[in-house]
Design a protein that fits this description.
five-stranded antiparallel β-sheet, binds flavin-adenine dinucleotide, Uridine Diphospho-n-acetylenolpyruvylglucosamine Reductase, domain 3, alpha+beta, single chain, 34% helix
Length: 484
């Protein structure tokens, strides 16, 4: 059937918005990554019945479909050439004692605001702040600065309701039959091929499935490849009564790494890193001879930990904040690091961000910085670095004049090979998407990759859900780069 007929069919059958005009198609062809893919149709469902009907048509006419949240993803995982399913209308929210049941389309901003009224919070806090959706956060296994203490989405989720591509509305882990099938696959993983890190958004997280009761975790980080997330039960916590934030300035990065390891021993709720070029764009003047900053926050045992920090540091500058306003202001600086880092790069020096999210064991941080410096030396790039150093997770922005696509691929191969060989993951939080899916097999090895394929065929045997993400058959790292 021709796509024009499918468009008409969807328009006739669905009780929701269906678009294919060029303005809408352009809008949905991009997200926050460096990629662009024009979809053929955009569906904005009002109900699960709309999605079921869309999926029926996708199955019948073999049309790929990509669920989409707020499009804040950084690796093109919400882009596709078939149907884009915008989940923004799935906005239910109900707060219970220690969990919240929330629709996939609810924004993190709205969830935070509602939970705050009840004195509670959902810990994973991506720096994109209020804009991302819960569906996108689950599908990326999102983390954030406070994941150091509180974990990623996968550590804070109790149940997921989703529509399989066959149109069945399933709840995991409640659906015993499917939960058992997933656990049977997870049981067979080669554990030593999973990275030894505290956060990981690459591949399917079968390592987190210890029993059928964990089976819903297969969907966390699955990037829309296994089904359409409808809602989830998320674990919530009481907002800490008090917090204290230290911002330390260093003349040598090696001292910051040393101190980071010390503060891991004293119940820090966040330990973050910002390099000199990024910090130079903060609206706060800092001494020129500083090479980097650490942000260290405590939200429990504050006095004891603060005393330890003041006595044990190699910093040249120590700033200490107690008031809510100051703490919020400095977190805004840190959370805007991506924005500030981009400000440091001239237009024709911009390089698509493909290697920006690796994570290594914390005892390999010196190695990670060395790998980044070596990339700069070999490929004549300048790297800008910030991120979640307490987790061993650093974001890298490369700058270089007119870097050829072939070289971008070469850098990625070189970088990821080294990350994997040092026990790290190619993605700590942003996922595989178009930038990294071709490296998933190398990351996990042949046996685990075959198990990933079994997970995929168990839930999507026709390969219609976000094809070529996570399980990939072709290289997509430099295809579809926007204006490059
Ligand atoms: C400035 C900036 C800072 C960021 N900082 C962080 C950070 O600190 N930590 C972090 O983890 N991430 C960070 N991110 C990445 C990103 O914002 C998050 O991963 C976010 O959770 C994605 O949510 P979204 O709603 O925008 O998803 P989208 O970008 O719309 O989609 C992401 C993936 O989720 C899938 N998806 C979305 N909704 C559904 C659904 N209902 N069912 C099935 N699949 C679905 C999509 O298909 C896609 O694969 C940052 C991004 C930006 C731009």
């Amino acid at each position: 059937m021709k796509i024009s007929q499918v468009r008409k069919l969807l328009k006739n059958k669905l009780a929701c918005d269906v678009f294919w005009d060029s303005q809408t198609i352009q809008y949905y062809s991009v997200d926050s990554s460096s990629y662009q893919i024009l979809p053929k149709i955009v569906v904005i469902p009002n109900s699960t019945a709309d999605i079921e009907e869309t999926l029926r048509i996708c199955r019948k006419y073999k049309i790929p479909i990509v669920p989409r949240g707020a499009a804040s993803g950084l690796v093109g995982s919400a882009l596709g050439s078939g149907i884009i399913l915008d989940m923004k209308k799935f906005d239910s929210l109900k707060i219970s004692k220690d969990f919240v049941t929330v629709g996939a389309g609810v924004t993190k901003g709205r969830l935070d605001a509602e939970l705050k009224k009840a004195g509670m919070f959902f810990p994973p806090d991506p720096s994109v702040g209020p804009y991302c959706s819960i569906g996108g956060m689950i599908a990326n296994n999102a983390s954030g600065s406070h994941s150091l203490k509180y974990g990623s989405v996968i550590d804070n989720i109790k149940e997921i309701s989703f529509l399989t591509v066959k149109g069945d509305l399933v709840k995991l882990p409640k659906d015993k039959k499917l939960a058992k099938r997933i656990f049977q696959i997870a049981k067979q993983i080669q554990k030593n091929k999973f990275p030894n890190v505290s956060k990981n958004s690459s591949g399917y997280r079968l390592d987190k499935i210890q029993s059928p009761a964990d089976s819903h975790k297969v969907l966390v980080g699955s990037e829309g490849t296994l089904g359409v997330l409808i809602s989830a039960k998320l674990a919530i916590k009481k907002i800490p009564d008090k917090k204290k934030l230290f911002v330390l300035g260093y003349t040598h990065t090696k001292d910051a790494i040393f101190d980071c390891r010390q503060y891991l021993r004293v119940d820090s709720s966040a330990i973050e890193f910002v390099d000199k070029s990024t910090a130079s764009k903060f609206p706060h003047r800092l001494a020129k001879d500083l090479s980097c900053l650490l942000f260290i926050e405590f939200d429990s045992k504050i006095n004891k930990s603060s005393k330890f920090l003041k006595k044990n540091n190699h910093a040249k500058l120590v700033l200490e904040f107690d008031s809510k306003e100051d703490i919020a202001k400095w977190w805004r600086y840190r959370d805007s690091a991506l924005f500030y880092s981009i400000k440091t790069v001239k237009k024709d020096y911009k390089v698509p961000h493909v290697i920006e999210d690796a994570v290594v064991p914390v005892d390999k941080l010196e190695t990670l910085f060395f790998i980044i410096q070596t990339i700069d030396k070999i490929f004549k790039t300048k790297s800008i670095v910030y991120g979640h150093i307490g987790n061993g997770n650093l974001h890298v922005r490369l700058a270089a004049k007119n870097l050829k696509k072939g070289l971008i691929k070469k850098i990625a191969r070189d970088y990821f090979s080294q990350i994997i060989s040092h026990g790290g993951s190619i993605s700590g939080e942003h996922g595989d998407g178009l930038a990294r899916s071709e490296f998933v097999k190398q990351q996990y090895g042949e046996k685990n990759y075959q198990l990933f394929k079994r997970v995929k065929s168990t839930l999507d045997s026709q390969n219609l859900m976000n094809p070529s993400k996570i399980i990939s058959t072709k290289s997509t790292i430099t295809a579809n780069l926007k204006n490059y």
